[in-house]
Amino acid sequence: MLLENKKLVLMGVRNKWSIAWGAAKSAHDNGAQLICTYNPSEGSEKLAKLLEEFPGTKLYPCDASSDESIRDCFAAIKADFGKVDGILHSIAHAFTDDLRNDFINTSREGYAHACDVSAYSLVKIVNEAVAQDALNEGASIVTYTYYGSEKAVVGYNVMGVAKAALEASIRYLAQDLGKKGMRINGISSGPIKTLSAKGIKDFGSILDVIEEKAPMHKNVTIEQVGDTTTFLFSNMSSGITGEIIHCDNGFTTVGV
Predict the structure, then answer these.
(1) What are the pLDDT digits (tens) for 182-233?
(2) Neighbour order of strands in the sheet with 135-145
(3) What pTM, to 2 d.p., does this model score?
(4) The CATH number of 7-248 is which of 3.40.50.720, 3.90.550.10, 1.10.472.10, 3.60.21.10?
(5) What are the residue numbers of the active site?
């Protein structure tokens, strides 16, 4: 198994439709010990019930918009598990109005919020994990992005800007983590019907375009993204860092 004896912190598992759930299932099936976080404002009961499928998984509260909450979360994880071998950052949020309206109408508050929760949270999470010496040498960090960071995708709006900031952060973090023998990469997933995707205007039409234009003529699944995440957590990807890997059935390779 690719992840046998590895301890992984998964941030962003919300339900069985979330991309992070695909990562959790793949990691568990490949032998990893799962450690999950949840947003305190959403509570832990539903997620705890869901994670019964993965015996031994423990939950910790973490508000990604709070430095103190991130600090407390990793302190608790280290106290219980010692150093870990990887972190999945599957955290993003934008105000509905900033996704539904034209990008030109994005509010200052909405712009700052999207970038803070969706991009800066990764920087602070990595900073805190390193500061608390909570990562083993060779640790791998993975985060999720989307094609809307590279091209203007109708309806993605401020989230595209936030994901562009996330991708730039990956490259700069790779420089710092490399000095410590650690890696960080992003996966640019094709569109998937998640709870968050419901906030994107005309999301169904985006799925239709993928089926028509992508070389594989189908949309990617959370299982495929989960297996790609497992690969990046595994020692088989030890020479890869600072990269954005597209897992979208080839859509981003098509010109028209």
Answers:
(1) 999 999 998 887 555 555 555 566 777 888 888 999 999 999 999 999 999 9
(2) 58-61, 33-38, 7-11, 84-89, 135-145, 183-189, 244-247
(3) 0.94
(4) 3.40.50.720
(5) 146, 156
